[in-house]
Structures are given as structure tokens and as C-alpha cells.
UniProtKB/TrEMBL annotation:
GO MF: ATP binding; ATP hydrolysis activity; ATPase-coupled transmembrane transporter activity
Entry keyword Transport: yes
Source organism of the structure: Mobiluncus porci
Protein name stated in the entry: ABC transporter ATP-binding protein
Lineage, opening ranks: Bacteria, Bacillati, Actinomycetota, Actinomycetes, Actinomycetales
A Pfam family assignment: ABC_tran
Top-level taxon in the UniProt lineage: Bacteria
Keywords from the named record: ATP-binding, Nucleotide-binding, Transport
PROSITE patterns according to UniProt: ABC_TRANSPORTER_1 (PS00211), ABC_TRANSPORTER_2 (PS50893)
Length: 500
């Protein structure tokens, strides 16, 4: 039951009428994946990681046109000539944007969907579903609509759905990008168990440290080619300098240590009023999810917000920027003035967790300036250069890789003239180099006196970008006043850091 790529090359067709193969895709890939092993595919953004997974699950060539050569096998099936449904029954898949893979309306239906479709007996499907629910700890979500799930909840449901059925192969595209540290620990433990049970695990990731100890092989890619294939232990022992040179994210679990924490105490801008929130309450139907006594996002500072999956971070972001209406008596001020939803929308810029919802233009160049008036060409070019999007100006935004889309939406947001900037998980699909450029762009916003809120589970990023670190606890658990200041955890006497 071989799973492998043998000298596989694929060039995406350009979206223009000339149908000339573009110079994007992958070249001469040969990789073997064996049962009971975990292969990590990593490398810079746009290097071809998702393309490898699309070759394995048959989306290439089924859905994506282009020039394909070589042979890809999934559990012994030739993916170029096997029906895509059959391939779907051979491997479970978690897409980079898990919401895009849901077929049904609610969690339970989604979990059962693939198994029922494969013609499994109802009792067998029920057994698979029960096992998946227990494994991923998602019983509280069982009767929920998929539409109303948070980003991390969606990712957990997608992971659970991918293991429902008789298949023993799992293809995971950035499966931890929206997971909280607790959910990542669960993820690592589940993968270890599946590996021991003989599953073939193939994971494309930037955030690699959770896969230390369970990775058997690592494939490092760059510009569509394999640059290194290393044993897991060799990969996780790469020296720090080399790791940075290769553009890889940290190999060890990051510890809390805000690089800009000192500026909080010395920069006068930080004390200027930016965005002030009092008595914020928000409910979905009868369920209250937000109850915040006080929150201040000072002008000139970057505040990082963490918290368990489903705690309400995205809801808070949507409320602040005026996309969700809080309950009466909530007071939100921008620069000392109480602002209603419409006013807040005008004064805010938001980068959503799911950036696909924010891409509207026909080309990358148009997308950057969309809604930002007449932007000078030089400014567009400088932004694209800084975010590694140069050369992609004429591409359709929907044909970009996950990380390229992410950076494009960030480019549009930072080009806008707002008072409040909110970035919701801006580092999915982002490699080390781009993490640093995004941090530096966000720091410059703060330097211009803006209020910036960064919602992220990514401590490596938070350490680089934030002045303060707040945590949002779930309202169901702690009630009114959900926000805790964790900044102090980043500085202990003697300069030592503490684990959060
Ligand atoms: N539909 C498409 N049409 C044209 N080019 C594409 C298409 N999809 C991806 N590409 C290009 O192919 C290359 C590899 O993309 P891929 O999505 O595999 O990268 P990746 O390593 O997964 O990136 P990321 O880490 O940013 O998610 C990129 O240059 C990307 O722009
Ligand atoms: N439209 C909706 N209808 C009903 N419930 C919703 C809706 N949107 C979100 N929720 C629920 O409200 C809670 C808060 O969701 P939110 O997306 O704000 O969480 P989050 O902290 O951003 O999570 P994550 O870290 O997973 O992205 C979650 O339990 C979620 O399931």
C-alpha cells in the first residue's frame, strides 16, 4: 500500500487566456511515506507544501489544471487516474482553511459524512464518530452548527472528521494554525497514538515544534523543490543560525519573553488614550460569550490577546471594529470619543482569521490598494516588496498560497489609515522571515501612534511584536471580567522567563 511521489513535477496553469504554464508549482519531487511514520513537510511560504498535499489527495489534477509529470501514489492508488471520492476514502485530509472543507451544516453530520458516503453500516459509522469525538474532546460541540464555530473549534472538528472511516492515512495542512497551546498538546498526543496504530501521517507546517519527537522524516522545500530530506532528530537538531538561514520557525517551544515589554514603561505614547472599552457584554442568542469590565488599547502600543479556543477573541475583535453589536450599556471610545458600530468601522482596519473572506480584487496589485483611495504606485511596490509579494502583482489573489494570501490582506490593512488595527491570527502560513517582516510593519503602526490588537496563539510572534500580553478566559468559566494581564509572566526577577 505504497504512498509516494516519484519524480513528480506540476506547474499551475496561468489564469490568463494564453494557457502558458506559469513558473509556479513543484519540480522533481521524490518522497516515500511509510505506515506508522510521520513526515513533516516544511519550508518557506509558497515553497509548494500544500501542492504536495493536493497531489496526494488528487485535487491535482482533478481540480487544478496544469502540466503534470511523474507518479503519485496514495495507499497504492495512482492519484492521477483514481476517482477523487475513492482517494477521499483512502486518506483523511485537513485543509489549510478547515472551513472550506465542510460539506454539511452541523458538527455531527459533518463527522458522519465521509463514512456514510463510503457506504459504511450505520453502526460502524457511529463507532467511528464516537471514537473521533472522544479523541478530540469535542463532545460540547456535537450539536453545534458549523457556521458558528470559532477558528480553533473548526480545526478540531476537521481533524476529528478526517479520522472517521477505515482509512489509515492522514494529510494535514497547517493543522495547528488556530489551535491554543492546550489544543496543540492534545493534537501532538493524538498524532502519537495514530502513529503507533500504524497510520501514515503527512503534515505540512511552519509551526514545527509541536511535531518534535513524533516526526520521523522532514522534507524541507524551497521554490517548489526539495532542498533537504532529514531524519526527524536531525531536523530538530539544526543549529539556530542555520535554522534562521533556512527561514524556519523556532524548533523548540517558545517561552514568554516580550522583546518590547520595556517600551511599555518608557514610551510616553503608550499612555495616550487609544481605544477604551467599558462594560462590554456580548451574547450569541442566549449564550453570553463576552463580559469585560475594562480594556484599554493604548495609542502607540501593540497588545497581544491569547486565550483558549472558543473563549471569544474573534468576537471581541468583531465588536471592537464595529462588525458585531454589543449589548446596551457597553461603552467603546476611540481617542476619548464614544463611537457606535458605524463610526468604529470607519476608524478600524481588520485582518480576519479567514483571509479568504477578504480577497475581492482581480489582481494582487489592485487588492493592496482596495478601499485605500489612490495609493501611489511606489507605496504599493514598497509594501509588496516588504511582504515578499513582488513579482506576483498580476496574479489573481485566489491563486496564491495560504501564506501569500495572508500577507496580501495584511498589506491592504497596513496601507489603510485607521486608528485601531486588529490582526486575527496573522501568522498562519507564515515562515520565519515573513513573521519578522509582519512584526516590523505592525511595530511601525504602533510607532505612528496607532492602537494595535493582535489575536494570536503564536508565542514566537507575540514575543516579537507585542508590548503587552492579555489573556481572555471563557465567560462560561470565569464570568464577568474575563481579561487577565499576562505581561508580568514575561519578566521575572533575574530576567528569567516563566512558562504560561
Ligand atoms: N491555483 C494556483 N495557480 C497558480 N499558482 C498557484 C496556485 N496555487 C498555488 N500556486 C503557487 O504555487 C506555489 C506553491 O504554492 P503552495 O500553496 O503549495 O505553497 P505552500 O508552501 O503551501 O505555501 P504557504 O506556506 O504559504 O501555505 C506558490 O508560488 C503559489 O503562488
Ligand atoms: N455566529 C455564531 N453563533 C453562535 N455561536 C458562535 C458564533 N460565532 C462564534 N460562536 C461561539 O462563540 C464562542 C466564541 O467564539 P470566537 O470565535 O470569538 O472564539 P475565539 O476565542 O476567537 O476562538 P479561536 O481561538 O478558536 O479562534 C465560541 O464558543 C463559538 O463557538
Amino acid at each position: 500500500m505504497t504512498t509516494s511521489l516519484r519524480d513528480v513535477s506540476f506547474k499551475y496553469l496561468r489564469e490568463t487566456d494564453d494557457n502558458i504554464p506559469a513558473d509556479t508549482g513543484v519540480s522533481n519531487l521524490t518522497i516515500d511515506f511509510s505506515p506508522g511514520s510521520c513526515t513533516l513537510i516544511t519550508g518557506s511560504s509558497g515553497s509548494g507544501k500544500s501542492t504536495v498535499l493536493k497531489l496526494l489527495n488528487g485535487l491535482i489534477p482533478e481540480l487544478y489544471e496544469g502540466d503534470l509529470s511523474g507518479r503519485t501514489l496514495l495507499g497504492g492508488l495512482d492519484t492521477a487516474s483514481t476517482d477523487i471520492q475513492r482517494l477521499g476514502q483512502t486518506a483523511g485530509m485537513v485543509f489549510q482553511n478547515p472551513r472550506s472543507q465542510f460539506f454539511t451544516a452541523n458538527v455531527l453530520e459533518e463527522l458522519a459524512f465521509a463514512s456514510e458516503n463510503a457506504g459504511e453500516a450505520p453502526e460502524t459509522t457511529a463507532q467511528y464518530v464516537a471514537a473521533a469525538i472522544n479523541t478530540w474532546g469535542i463532545r460540547p460541540l456535537m450539536n453545534r452548527s458549523l457556521q458558528g464555530l470559532s477558528g480553533g473549534e473548526s480545526q478540531l472538528v476537521a481533524c476529528a472528521a478526517a479520522m472517521v472511516g477505515p482509512q489509515k492515512i492522514l494529510l494535514l495542512d497547517e493543522p495547528t494554525s488556530n489551535l491554543s497551546p492546550a489544543a496543540i498538546d492534545l493534537f501532538t498526543a493524538v498524532l502519537q497514538r495514530l502513529k503507533t496504530a500504524g497510520w501514515t501521517l503527512i503534515v505540512a507546517e511552519h509551526r514545527v515544534y509541536p511535531l518534535n519527537k513524533i516526526t520521523d522524516w522532514t522534507v524541507i522545500m524551497r521554490e517548489g523543490r526539495i532542498t533537504y530530506q532529514l531524519r526527524g532528530d536531525e531536523f530538530f537538531a539544526i543549529p539556530e543560525m542555520k535554522r534562521r538561514e533556512l527561514g524556519l520557525r523556532t524548533l523548540t517551544k517558545p517561552q514568554p519573553q516580550l522583546r518590547h515589554a520595556a517600551s511599555e514603561m518608557v514610551a510616553p505614547a503608550v499612555t495616550a488614550p487609544g481605544v477604551e472599552v467599558r462594560n462590554l457584554r456580548f451574547s450569541y442568542g442566549k449564550r453570553q460569550v463576552l463580559g469585560i469590565e475594562e480594556l484599554c488599547l493604548a495609542a502607540g502600543s501593540v497588545v497581544a490577546l491569547t486565550g483558549p479556543n472558543g473563549a471569544g477573541k474573534t468576537t471581541l475583535a468583531r465588536t471592537l471594529v464595529g462588525l458585531a453589536k454589543p449589548q446596551k450599556n457597553t461603552e467603546i471610545k476611540f481617542q476619548g470619543k464614544v463611537c457606535d458600530c458605524a463610526e468604529r468601522q470607519k476608524r478600524s482596519a481588520l485582518v480576519m482569521q479567514d483571509v479568504n473572506r477578504q480577497l475581492f480584487a482581480e489582481t494582487v496589485a489592485q487588492e493592496v490598494s482596495l478601499g485605500n483611495g489612490e495609493m501611489p504606485r511606489e507605496q504599493i511596490e514598497a509594501l509588496l516588496e516588504e511582504l515578499g509579494l513582488k513579482g506576483l502583482e498580476q496574479r489573481h489573489p485566489m491563486t496564491l498560497s495560504g501564506g501569500q494570501k495572508q500577507r496580501l490582506v495584511i498589506a491592504n490593512a497596513v496601507a489603510s489609515d485607521a486608528q485601531l488595527y486588529v490582526f486575527d491570527e496573522p501568522t498562519s502560513g507564515v515562515d520565519y522571515g515573513h513573521l519578522m517582516s509582519i512584526s516590523s510593519l505592525i511595530r511601525r503602526l504602533a510607532g505612528r501612534g496607532k492602537s494595535v490588537l493582535v489575536i494570536s496563539h503564536d508565542l514566537e510572534f507575540i514575543n516579537e511584536v507585542a508590548d503587552r500580553h492579555l489573556q481572555l478566559e471563557p465567560f462560561d468559566k470565569v464570568g464577568y471580567d474575563q481579561i487577565q494581564d499576562l505581561s508580568v509572566n514575561h519578566r521575572t526577577p533575574g530576567g528569567k522567563t516563566r512558562d504560561i
